[in-house]
């Protein structure tokens, strides 16, 4: 029988390090405070009052993680932007319903808790919350020795938003003849990284992430780590002025799987390939991995992160309003009669690389 005295710290869990991490995180969360927040972080639960201006409020919630994009963060030892991805994946899903994100909570799990690393991650989460206009209401950090490889961690989180019951967007108003407006992505966002990593590492090995990306100027790692765009501020306010029939967040499943999710019966989406510029990193993956076009379209966003669907007159006004806000906007297709699916039409790229119309 052993006489060794065991402690939680000796078993691999450092409560003092956890307390230090919370101390560092408090000002990051405080910077995201917005009307509705009650109290601060550190309690057993976060408190938030539903905005009183909403007469018939409906809460809208979404949850997600960052996925294997984290493997690139590990390889490059860069951890200050993946928190933005974490927030973006949930708040963009809330936007699709026409709702305003109110607050966000995160969960960070690691093998060994390093307060500085946790602070980097939460700084990214707080940055994402500031971009989305929501509060970082709280979170949880779990130290689980032996569960993760040294230096590795995982992130998960969820956002809660609200909208008036009568202003929810569910796609039921979409009709044949409606126009599809595409807003540019910042890259792969947080989808398709298992395939992307497999292609890049098979071609150049694990050192591939520091190689220059042809036609871009950044390293492959920098391009692939570019944080997911958050579309709340350029889009949410316009939804009150322009009756949008449906919104699509191009996440896992790409174009082929995501667009049908908002289509009502009797409607199909005709997408005009070549109507928007495809960034070099997608061209690299397609060529180096010899990935078929069908696979590209059902895995990646190919340079478009959000699609707004509206009648032609509304779409024109919306496009002009977005451009006044400095937002590029491409007409990427139209709604046609048919069963719920995506039809792809080949269109030559406009002369001079101009894709807005």
Describe the fold and architecture.
This protein is of the alpha+beta class. The protein has 2 domains: 15-167, 60s Ribosomal Protein L30, Chain: A; 179-353, Phosphoribosyl-aminoimidazole Synthetase, Chain A, domain 2, CATH 3.90.650. 31% of the residues lie in helices and 23% in strands. The protein has 11 helices and 12 strands. Helix 1 packs parallel to helix 4 (115-132) and helix 3 (82-96) runs parallel beside helix 4. Mean pLDDT is 91; it is low at 350-357.
Mind sketching the topology for me?
Layout: H1 15-30, E1 37-38, E2 47-48, E3 57-65, H2 69-76, H3 82-96, E4 100-110, H4 115-132, E5 135-143, E6 153-164, E7 179-184, H5 193-204, H6 220-225, H7 232-235, E8 246-249, H8 254-258, E9 267-273, H9 280-288, H10 293-297, E10 304-310, H11 312-324, E11 330-337, E12 342-346
Parallel strand pairs: 4-5, 9-12
Antiparallel strand pairs: 1-2, 3-6, 4-6, 7-10, 7-11, 8-10, 9-11
């Amino acid at each position: 029988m052993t006489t060794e005295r065991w402690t939680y710290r000796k078993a691999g869990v450092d409560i003092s390090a956890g307390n230090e991490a919370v101390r560092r995180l408090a000002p990051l969360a405080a910077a995201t405070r917005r009307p509705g927040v009650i109290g601060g972080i550190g309690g057993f639960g976060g408190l938030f009052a539903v905005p009183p201006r909403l007469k018939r409020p409906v809460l809208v919630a979404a949850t997600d993680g960052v996925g294997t994009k984290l493997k690139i963060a590990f390889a490059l030892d860069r951890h200050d932007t993946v928190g933005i991805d974490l927030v973006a994946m949930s708040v963009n899903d809330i936007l699709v319903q026409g709702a305003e994100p109110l607050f966000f909570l995160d969960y960070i799990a690691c093998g060994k808790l390093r307060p500085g690393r946790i602070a980097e991650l939460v700084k990214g989460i707080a940055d994402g919350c500031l971009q989305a206009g929501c509060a970082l209401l709280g979170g949880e950090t779990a130290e689980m020795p032996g569960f993760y490889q040294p230096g590795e961690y995982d992130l998960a989180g969820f956002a809660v938003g609200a909208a008036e019951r009568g202003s929810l967007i569910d796609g039921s108003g979409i009709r044949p003849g409606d126009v599809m407006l595409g807003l540019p992505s910042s890259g792969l966002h947080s989808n398709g990284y298992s395939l992307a990593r497999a292609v890049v590492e098979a071609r150049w090995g694990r050192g591939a992430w520091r190689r220059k990306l042809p036609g871009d100027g950044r390293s492959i790692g920098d391009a692939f780590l570019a944080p997911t765009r958050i579309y709340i501020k350029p889009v949410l306010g316009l939804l009150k002025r322009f009756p949008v029939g449906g919104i699509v967040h191009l996440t896992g499943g790409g174009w082929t799987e995501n667009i049908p999710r908002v289509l009502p019966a009797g409607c199909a989406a005709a997408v005009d390939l070549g109507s928007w510029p495809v960034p070099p990193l997608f061209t690299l993956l397609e060529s180096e991995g010899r990935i078929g076009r069908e696979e590209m379209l059902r895995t990646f966003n190919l340079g478009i992160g959000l699609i707004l669907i509206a009648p032609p007159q509304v779409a024109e006004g919306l496009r002009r309003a977005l451009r006044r806000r400095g937002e590029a906007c491409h007409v990427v297709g139209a709604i046609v009669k048919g069963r719920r699916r995506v039809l792809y039409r080949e269109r030559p790229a406009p002369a001079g690389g101009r894709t807005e119309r």
